[in-house]
Amino acid sequence: MSDRHGQDRRGVLRAAAGVTLGAGIAATASPAPAAAAGAGDSGRVEVAVLLYEGFTALDAVGPYEALCRVPGVRVTTVATRAGLVRTDTGELGIAAEKSLPQVTRPDVLVVPGGGERGTTATMADARILEWIRRVHRHTVWTTSICTGSLILGAAGLLRGLPATTYWASRPYVKEVGAVYTPGRFVETGRIITAAGVSAGIDMGLHLAARLSDEQVGRAMELALEYDPEPPFRTGDPDTADERTRALALKLLADSAV
Amino acid sequence: MSDRHGQDRRGVLRAAAGVTLGAGIAATASPAPAAAAGAGDSGRVEVAVLLYEGFTALDAVGPYEALCRVPGVRVTTVATRAGLVRTDTGELGIAAEKSLPQVTRPDVLVVPGGGERGTTATMADARILEWIRRVHRHTVWTTSICTGSLILGAAGLLRGLPATTYWASRPYVKEVGAVYTPGRFVETGRIITAAGVSAGIDMGLHLAARLSDEQVGRAMELALEYDPEPPFRTGDPDTADERTRALALKLLADSAV
């Protein structure tokens, strides 16, 4: 991976005064991801983001954005069939680049959550669950966001393990045999489950460092300008008031297709 | 907008014990968005997210996720041509539902940022700039994320106005005639510019409240479980160290196509 633009190129993304990309930085930017992540013969780390009808867009795009610039990483999207997959509101379509049979040995699996319909349908989709079990045998990291952990659980991957999920779905963690554990993300062995929707960004940045080194994680956090200032401070379900919780659930249900 | 699932339905997204959706909540969940946002004859608030080759996925998906469940809001994606539009890494494709001529009177315009190539090409794309100018005449809110503010600026919308942008692009705000102003987002009249990438989530939640009421903003923040814990605390460009800044810029350049 080389700086195709040359180190002197300046443009709208390069305007920060005084930035020089010296040899030390170049070395840091090119760790040996194959060694760190156990990449296959391709020498690249393949991250497969599973898409399914009714997934939640930010669940998938948060980790994608955190991982797609990590040296040596190639992110791909996969679904039962290649082509457009609709989100839980039906208002957005994201392309699955590949079908399940085309992705056999990803180094990293990312399973986003979805609305009620998409999650429960996927938890009952034998073909997807069998694919998850098969690729998990060889992954370096198997991860989920939001209700994606219930899908990992339905595939039998979380039995007896600590895991998190979307706040409103916490009781279901037990039903798939896992032990609900609080946290923006919960790492156990080579499985990482993230909490709801936006927690995929936190998990993705953590994973970026795991796949490379901490300096890359730090740089990606800055690349996303991830210095959040949630405007209402109601994002923590443990402190949100009941009215806000009830309305959130209503808006989710009303927007579902 | 009604709860199509009925108030007694419970499922993986409804598991939070003790939640009841009473009449008071139902009333809150159905404010009069047409009045609040100045919607057209359709009675719905149309949010148009502009896509262009080389846009940054999270810039577009953050606001989409914050807005798509606001009562009365319909989010659509628009590009020069309808169909798949590739992101700045080339690794993800998101569908534009409509072409520019098909979207004439959106209530809200959202312009994401992009990589160097996508941003500069769009800043020089007379057809897109003319469309932005035309729809801006009637929008209730015209918004941008990251380098999207430079595109609004290139369209002539920011002359003399306070605005923000991606951290590395701050000097360019002046070049499009605006006054760089710090903040996760900067609201001036009916224009809101957000800082880099993830700041679109903060802005989107703020806008959700503007389009409805604060209670909906609070509920959407919880719906996204937006209680962030950035793992490295390096997302603030004003406090990030020089090595992190330089590596972030290098990773951005290296991942661009």
TrEMBL record, chains A, B:
<dbReference type="GO" id="GO:0006355">
    <property type="term" value="P:regulation of DNA-templated transcription"/>
</dbReference>
<feature type="domain" description="DJ-1/PfpI">
    <location>
        <begin position="46"/>
        <end position="208"/>
    </location>
</feature>
<protein>
    <submittedName>
        <fullName>4-methyl-5 B-hydroxyethyl-thiazole monophosphate biosynthesis enzyme</fullName>
    </submittedName>
</protein>
<dbReference type="Pfam" id="PF01965">
    <property type="entry name" value="DJ-1_PfpI"/>
</dbReference>
<dbReference type="InterPro" id="IPR052158">
    <property type="entry name" value="INH-QAR"/>
</dbReference>
<dbReference type="InterPro" id="IPR006311">
    <property type="entry name" value="TAT_signal"/>
</dbReference>
<dbReference type="InterPro" id="IPR029062">
    <property type="entry name" value="Class_I_gatase-like"/>
</dbReference>
<dbReference type="InterPro" id="IPR002818">
    <property type="entry name" value="DJ-1/PfpI"/>
</dbReference>
